[in-house]
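[09:14] KT: can someone run the structure on this one? pasting the chain below
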Amino acid sequence: MLFPKKTKYRKWHRNRGSLKGVATRGSRVAFGTYGLKLTQKAELTSRQIEAARRTITRYLKRGGKLWIRVFPHKPITRKAAEVPMGSGKGSVEHYVASLKPGTVVFELEGVSETQAQEAFTLASHKLPAKTRFVTAIHK
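[09:31] RB: done, structure tokens below
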């Protein structure tokens, strides 16, 4: 599971509205030949990223090279059950990666296009947003 070793602040504001617009950074396939791109804004938890990664590697039987292009830096807090209003912010529950539409989440290289497409289709079922299969322009 992915989570930061150290953060500057233990708890963050939710920062609602920061996912407006389309991604310009991380929107192209840079390392591999094939990519899985988000078409909706999403907050991917470390568990969802790990589940999708495991699905891809198991389908490909550890063949090819896989890149994870996102990292969950943002802490999400949750108050315990039946806690009254007030008494401050809850403790950190998990970490998420806040992503705009157009962000490439995974990249693959060293496998056929049909294999990559099927692996990404299986992985997209583990993610909370709609995705699209993309190929690199330069390769």
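[09:33] KT: thanks! DSSP finds two helices and seven strands in the chain.
[09:34] RB: yep, looked fine to me
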